[in-house]
Amino acid sequence: MEEFFVAAVFIAIPWIILHYITKWKTASSITTDDEALLDELYHLAKRLDERMDTVERLVADDHSDFKPARLIHDQEVDNQKLREIDRMLAEKKGAMK
């Protein structure tokens, strides 16, 4: 009985703790599939933003009383954030190759 207790304390309990720590760490990391999906979604969002700018510009040309619901088109503050994200993505892709 004493051998079982010693085995449980020194082998089983640390093994269980380390097992779940490893599971926790692997579950919280982003996989390459997740990264590719995020990259694809980012590029899709940029394309949709450009399309929305075009639609708002066309509607504003047709209707003088039209006020765009969005913020200012092609605002430098927004573009700066997008350039920073583009730079980070380029660095990450460069580091991966």
Characteristics:
97 residues, 2 domains, 3 helices, Envelope stress response membrane protein PspB
Structure description:
Keywords: Membrane, Transmembrane, Transmembrane helix. The chain crosses the membrane at residues 6-22. It holds the Pfam family PspB. This is Envelope stress response membrane protein PspB. With 97 residues, the chain is mainly alpha-helical. The protein folds into two domains: 1-29; 31-97. The protein has three helices and no strands.
Radius of gyration: 26 Å
How far apart, in Å, are the first and last alpha carbons? 56 Å
Tell me the β content.
under 5%
Mean pLDDT: 81
- Biggest beta sheet attributes: none
By helix and strand content, what is the structural category? Answer: mainly alpha
Low-pLDDT segments: none
Output the number of helix runs: 3
Helical fraction equals over 70%
User: What would the principal axes of the Cα set say about the shape?
Assistant: rod-shaped
> Could you spell the SSE succession in H and E letters?
HHH
- Quickly count the domains: 2
Q: Count the beta strands.
A: 0
Protein name: Envelope stress response membrane protein PspB
Keywords: Membrane, Transmembrane, Transmembrane helix
InterPro entries: Phageshock_PspB (IPR009554)
Pfam family, one: PspB
